[in-house]
C-alpha cells in the first residue's frame, strides 16, 4: 500500500506541475553520439537539451588516472582517421596524438611476430614471405574492390547475399589464404566487432576490413585522454543544457511534441521534459528499459531483437618498471599486440614517473563475456589473467602490483549476426524517424565510433529539416593511409 501510495503521489505531482518548456530536440544519452548530437544541434540553430542517466559524460570515452602516476583509456581507445569526431576535436582546438598503424604485433602457433618495422608493408613482408605474401596481396586487392561495390545503392544482389554466410566460412572457402594469413585477418578484425568472425556475416566482414586494406588506416587519440572530447563539447554547447543523473523511464508522443519522464537515481525524484523531437542515443540493450507510448512498432522491435552484439572487458595491470622489458625489443615497444586469446589486445599505458608502468588489456568476445559475468569473483579473473600473462611472458606475474577491471554490459558493441547486416532493410528502418522519435548510436550505423558521430549527424539533419532549418552535415575529412608507426619517421 505504501509503495502504491508513493507512486500515486509522484504521478500526481507530475500531473500538477507546470508544463515544461518545449525544446526543438531532446537528446537521451551523453555518450559520443549524444554529445555529437548536441554539438550539431547548436550548429543547426536548434533549441536542445541532453539527458544522461549516469554522472559521467562521454559514455565509453573513459580515461583512467591512478595514484601511481599511470593511466590508460578504460573504454574507447582510438579514433580511426576519417572519423568526424576528429573534426569536432580539431574545431574545438583539442590536440591529438597519432597512434599506431592498423596492424599490430601478434601471436601465431605459439610464436610472437613483433611489429618493429616502420610500415605495414614492411611488417607484412616479414610476416607473410614469398607465396603467402602474393596470395595476401591478391586477396586484399579483391577486398578493396568488394568494399567499393558495397558503396553502391542498392548493393548488388550477388554481394548482398553474402549476409547469409559467416565471414569465417566465406574467407576459408574463397580467400586462398593459408593458416597464418587467416589468423591475421581473424585476430586483426575480431577486436573491432568484439565477437567471433563466425558470428558476423561476410558482407559486414568486408565492411570491417577496409580499415586494414592497402597500407592501412591511421588512428588518433585525444591528448590527455579521449574523455576530454566530451568535456570540451559540454563546455562549447553550455553545460546548462546537459543534465546528468537523469534516467529516462517514459517517452510519450502527444500530437505536436514528446513528453519525456526521467528519474534522478540519487533521490528518486522524477522530472519531465518536452520537445518536438527526441533523439535516443542509448545503447541497444537499454532501449527496452524505456516505456514508449505509443509502443515501438513490431518491425522496430524485430530490428532490435535480431541484432546481436560484441563484448568488451578492460583490465589495467599496474606493474613495476622492470616489467616493461617484456613488451620491448631492443628498447622499442612491440605494443599493441594481438593475442587472440584471454589477454585480448595488449596496449601500453601512460606513465608520469619511473615508479610504475601500466599494461592495458582490451579483451573481446567470449573471453570478455566470461570476465563480465557476475557469477565468479574478480579474484578468479585476476588469477586467470595472471596465468595467461605468465604463459605469454614467463615470470611476468611477479611484477604485478595491482589489477583493476572495467566490466561492460554484454551488448555494449553493435554487431549483426549471419542473416542480418548493417545494410539490410531492418537497419535502414532504424535510421528513419519513427514519428518524432529518432534512433542514433553506433548500432544504427556500424561497429566503430565514427558510426556514433555519423548517426548524430543524420538525426540532427532529420530534425533540422522537419523544423525548416537549412543544415547539412559537414563533410568529414576522408581516411588516409597510416604511413609509418607512431614514433617512427
List keywords for this structure.
3 domains, disordered C terminus, globular, 489 residues, seven-stranded mixed sheet, disordered N terminus, alpha+beta, eight-stranded mixed sheet, Polyamine Oxidase, Chain A, domain 2, FAD/NAD(P)-binding domain
Descriptive account of the structure:
The chain is of the alpha+beta class and 489 residues long. It folds into 3 domains: 2-59 and 226-296 and 434-466, FAD/NAD(P)-binding domain (3-Layer(bba) Sandwich); 63-100 and 309-407, Polyamine Oxidase, Chain A, domain 2, CATH 3.90.660.10; 121-217. Helices cover 34% and strands 23% of the residues. The protein is built from 15 helices and 25 strands. The chain has helices at residues 2-16, 32-43, 84-91, 120-127, 131-150, 157-160, 167-174, 179-193, 202-209, 227-237, 298-305, 365-372, 378-392, 425-430, 449-466; strands spanning 22-28, 48-51, 63-65, 70-73, 79-80, 96-98, 105-108, 111-113, 219-222, 242-243, 247-254, 257-264, 269-280, 291-293, 308-310, 312-319, 328-329, 332-333, 337-338, 345-348, 350-351, 357-364, 400-407, 413-415, 437-439. The strands form 6 sheets. Strands 1, 2, 10, 11, 12, 13, 14 and 25 form an 8-stranded mixed sheet that branches. β3 (63-65) and β4 (70-73) form a beta hairpin. The chain is globular. It starts with a helix and ends in a 23-residue tail after the last helix. The model is unreliable at 1-15 and 479-489 (pLDDT under 50).
Q: How do you describe this structure in short?
A:
The protein is α+β, with helices and mostly antiparallel strands. The chain has helices at 2-16, 32-43, 84-91, 120-127, 131-150, 157-160, 167-174, 179-193, 202-209, 227-237, 298-305, 365-372, 378-392, 425-430, 449-466, and strands at residues 22-28, 48-51, 63-65, 70-73, 79-80, 96-98, 105-108, 111-113, 219-222, 242-243, 247-254, 257-264, 269-280, 291-293, 308-310, 312-319, 328-329, 332-333, 337-338, 345-348, 350-351, 357-364, 400-407, 413-415, 437-439. 34% of the residues lie in helices and 23% in strands.
